[in-house]
Fold this sequence. Notes:
There is one protein chain. The protein is mostly helical. The chain has helices at 3-32, 39-64, 69-89, 96-113, 134-145. Helix content is 73%, strand content 0%. The N and C termini lie far apart (49 Å).
Amino acid sequence: MTRDGRAVRRAIAVLNVLCGGLGIWGGGQVLRYFREASAVAITIGAAGLVAGVSFAIAGLAVWRGWANARAFGLSASATTIVVYVAGVALGIIGMSGLLFGVAYPAFVMAWLARPGSGSGRAAETEPRRSDRGGDDGMLRRVSALA
């Protein structure tokens, strides 16, 4: 991977951790003061806390280049978008939530969805050249046993 690709991957990872931290902080604030909140606000706060944790872990996965970083990042981004849209629609999360909770995760999804985004291992679409198939190998084993 080129040096520019690593820099972009690390920048995305750091921003994921920071935006995940915002979700953790916001969800934690609602849960900390849950006595004054409604059941819907508590539900959105708990979901925001979970979405923030998963988004921050996705940032760590992208930084470290884990094998399933792309899939985890896409699912964490989708979860974050759903929680923040629901929170804004219900009036629990302010309009700034659209920036941190919808626009940025949508950008992350677009970046992770493109081929060669540099996160995790790429899926093999073609068989390895050294693999001649199961029949060829099986015939060799059978003839060696006979």
